[in-house]
Amino acid sequence: MEEPSMTGDGKKTLIVAGAALELLIEFSNNTVTGVTLGFPESAEIVNKHAVEAGKILLKDLQIEHNQSPLTKSLEPFARNFERLALLDKLSINPGLNLYEAVAGIYESLQRLHNWELHKSREDPSLTGKSDLELALIALCTKSGRPSMNGRGRVGLSLDFWTEKRLQPYPTPEAAAHAAETNKTWSLLIGCAPLREMGANPVRITDKWISLDVASGPTIDWLEPEPTFVPAESQTQTGPLQPGSPMMPGPRLPEAVFQATFDPPLHISLDLWNRIIDFGCGLDSSHHKFVMYDSLVIPAPTSKANEQTDTRTVICTKKVQAAPVGQPAELTHKTHTNTLYVYDAVPGKTLTELTFSHPSQLVQLLPYLRQYAFLSILLENSFKDDSVTVSTTPASAANKGATSSVKSDTNQDDFRSFMRGSGQQNSKTQNDAVPKQEGKEESLKVDVTLTVLPVPRLQVVFPFRDKTANILVEIRENGHVHVEAQNVLDESNMNATQNGRQRRVEDIGGLLMYMEDIGKWAEFIRTRWA
To answer: In this structure, are residues 344 and 293 in contact, taking their beta carbons and an 8 Å threshold?
Structure first.
């Protein structure tokens, strides 16, 4: 409904009213000047977030200084308003306010998040960590970071992973900017129509977890009573229609909690089935049979329909490098990264799931992080718009023997490496593929991916006068566990500037720090040689 201004000054107000929301959009000379969002019939746990949500909608509609009214995209506004409208559409029954249902989950998750931050500050092993570092620990290793109207999105989101999580920032301003711009994996929590028989409908409550949060070593989750809504009025006579209640009386809501993955997450079919075992609902009707590695690193269009158990992906990339013995001089080196997949497993893409209790989401987070970090490693190492990626059948002759490794990062070495600068390439006799006339030497980095029973990466590259062979597991919460390695021995374990002995754990920690197999291999071969 459009309401013209009575003052004749060209001002107008567009009023959008629903079952539980009211949106006022103010115009002046056909330009949006204000947005007011309200929830007249909702509790305070909903209305206290209305102002921030209105600011997001206003920003979505305003013309920025570098934008034109002719090309201004309304997609962000449409996406945010759609989330609000869906909850409103499902709240048409008296006594059913799904804004309150979602806000109740936020209250419980925020209580859990605050408790985890408090416990982290009391943890002696985390002494000296900044508030940002503690927040990232909670986000990436505990119950995630709940946010209402965060990062330009209206509604509730649960952030559970972010890129560059271990990289330090020189100033609080840089850290705040990174928190807003770094790629973050989230669950957008809302509601959807109840379609599956046996699924538990929504419950409107903020008592999903006790006030004390924990009971001993475990989280003290509560099981709220069901929410009932009045029966639909029987205004028609005649035989009952399909789905009509047999007799009037309170009934369960015809809505269920839903979490949407932002961005979608590729996982193995094995984890897909485990998520169903957790009691969550997944829609398999539109998913075709695709191998996991092909989801993360898609095949060229000409081979998109080929599904084989073996696969090879070759990617040429430029990687920052420091010449051996000259750690302060940085240059760029060409890497030929080759990914071998010998035992491909089926995969699925998580886009959304239904759930009945927030504890189900918290239980899933360690496994979601596992595959989020695996996708980061594979995409950073083998997927880039600026390079050519070729896919060929994997040769059994290239299948390397498995070795083992363990590791955690040496940040002093890494920071020194990243601070260096230089302009000249430097190659050593043993670290490169034989040079062809007119072509730059490239370092070969071979990676073998095994997804089950746990994701494993076997990485082989030139190191000293031999071949480095490192086997790592990507475990829950994105932790890198080194199963085998041959790069650390008595000759280089004590060769650190600060006198700290290098440990096998540093190998895995360094990979978590860098999030790129090529950079990780380059660091090890030039700084630990």
So the answer is: yes
Domain residues for 54? 2-74
462 has which bridge partners? 467
The yes-or-no verdict on residue 231 having pLDDT over 80 is no
Number of Cβ atoms within 10 Å of the Cβ of 267: 24
Q: Distances in Å between the alpha carbon of 306 and those of 65, 298, 339, 350, 391?
A: 48, 11, 17, 22, 11
Helix pair angle (98-122, 358-382), 10° resolution: 70
What is the C-alpha to C-alpha distance for residues 407 and 391, in angstroms, rounded to an integer?
Answer: 31
- Of the listed ranges 54-58, 379-383, 403-407, 481-485, the least confidently predicted one is 403-407
Rounded CA separation 461/340 (Å) = 14
Structure tokens, 6: 């009575």
Cβ atoms of residues 482 and 472 within 8 Å: yes
136 and 162 in contact (C-beta within 8 Å)?
A: yes
**Total domains, the chain:** 2
Residue 335 included in any domain:
yes
What contacts 24+ positions apart, CB below 8 Å, involve 202-205? 202/98, 202/101, 202/227, 202/253, 202/255, 202/256, 202/257, 203/101, 203/227, 203/356, 204/96, 204/97, 204/98, 204/100, 204/101, 204/104, 205/101, 205/104
pLDDT at res. 140 = 96
Answer for the pair 332, 320: CB distance below 8 angstroms, yes or no: yes
Residue 461 lies in a domain: yes
pTM score, whole prediction: 0.85
pLDDT score of 393 more than 60: no
What element of type H or E holds 466?
strand 466-474
Q: Which amino acid type is present at position 166?
A: L
Q: Among 74, 106, 131, where does a domain finish? A: 74
Residue 294's alpha-carbon distances to 197, 344, 346, 447, in angstroms, are 33, 9, 9, 15
Question: Is the separation of the CB atoms in 102 and 156 below 8 Å?
Answer: yes
Which among 74, 106, 121 is the end of a domain? 74
In a domain, 424, yes or no: yes
**Which pLDDT belongs to residue 72?**
84
Residue type, 239: P
Comparing CA positions, the residue from 404, 410, 406 lying closest to residue 501 is: 410
Inter-CA distances, 23 with 2, 78, 80, 199, Å: 12, 14, 13, 32
Residue 120 confidence (pLDDT) above 50: yes
Residue 436 has pLDDT above 60, yes or no: no
**Residue 126 in domain:** no
* Distance in angstroms (rounded) separating the CA atoms of residues 500 and 91: 61
The Cα-based distances of 299 to 85, 131, 230, 318, 392 in angstroms read 38, 42, 53, 21, 9
Exposure string for 228-252, b = 16+ CB within 10 A, e = fewer: ebeeeeeeeeeeeeeeeeeeeeeee
401: pLDDT confidence band, cut at 50, 70 and 90?
Answer: very low
Task: Answer for the pair 482, 406: CB distance below 8 angstroms, yes or no.
Answer: yes
DSSP state of 469: E
| 429's tokens | 């006799």
